[in-house]
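Reply to dn_fold:

You asked what the input looked like. This is it:
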Amino acid sequence: MMAAARGQGNYVCPLSMEVIGPSDSPGHGQEEYGMASQFQYILWFEECNKSALALVGGKNANLGEMVNAGIRVPPGFAVTSRAFQQYMDEASLWDQIRDTLSDVSVDDIKAVSKAGSAIRKAILSTPIPDEIQKEIITAYSSLSHRCGVTDLPVAVRSSATAEDLEDASFAGQQDTYLWIWGNDEVVKATHDCWASLFTDRAIIYRMRVGFPQDGVLISVGIQKMVNSRSAGVMFTLDPVTGDRSKITIDANWGFGESIVQGMVSPDNFILSKKSLSIKQSIIGQKDQRFVANGCGTIVEPVPSEQQVIPCISAGEVIEIAKMGMLIEKHYGSPQDIEWAIDGDLPFPENTFSTQSRPVTAAGKSDFKNGILKEKGKSDTDHIIDLMLKGFSK
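and this is what came back:
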């Protein structure tokens, strides 16, 4: 997954995490999914659930499930796949995409790259219809107002409709944009997320798993930014052995993209689910981190004294694990969870889940067959590698 950031001016993230739900937005538009909204193309996270996967994608559906299960999730909304579908149909972009990829082989990387570039250029040069832009801006303004500011910093995340399925993972193929604020920037980031459905990596992945290029739609999640002091990834099993009695947590200073992108050797904690005790702690060499700089995020060196100490306390490790167990119980299967510690809030209210997906590569027989992570790789890198190799097929 690629992280980027845009915005302008200095900003201090507010403390408010007020939930915005369907009760704030009576109306119409999503009745076929058992929902009601004032919007035709927008759903608040409280209106999202697994039954709306085709409408909001895996990431947003899971966020809605967590919100409704009482799990702390930063507030936000989904721009539904209906908006993307209408946009693509009105501009006749699907025909252009099929023609562009019709003779491209997955083994010809240069041809894939050329085709992908042409497709993304076509999408980005086609304006989003005014009625869709208006709904995005109206929902963003409402979210900002509820959080007590004019232009709320948000994360803008892709959520593909084939993402986070039990038997495959399309997660991580599209882009995420952090610390976005202002109407124009939020609309632009949404447009960029749409185009990222056709990154070279996403095109190749769909080719390799035999999924049609026009068989995936995309929703976009727009979510209040957490002012991350520390962040990372948690698996509600041991991703190396498949042991479901364990929880593993990777953590770094700043925002979690440094771990998702494999930039650092993170702190690693292994806990027992039964006792919620920390069985192993390894302090990684956390030499880089993503931080906010007033107009987006930048990568900066971690001070040497912080590289050698844990970036989360023992209490925070246990609180994160508790959250993981609650999420796993809700879904009924092992989960791959992204989490963050908000530096503006007191413990334990500072602990948030920013997304969750099923672990797709955790079959015991596969671990017995000796598919283990390479030396020096984090658990996160190992799982991502397995996914990209088609291990989940």
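The chain has two domains: 3-224, 228-388.
Hope that clears it up.
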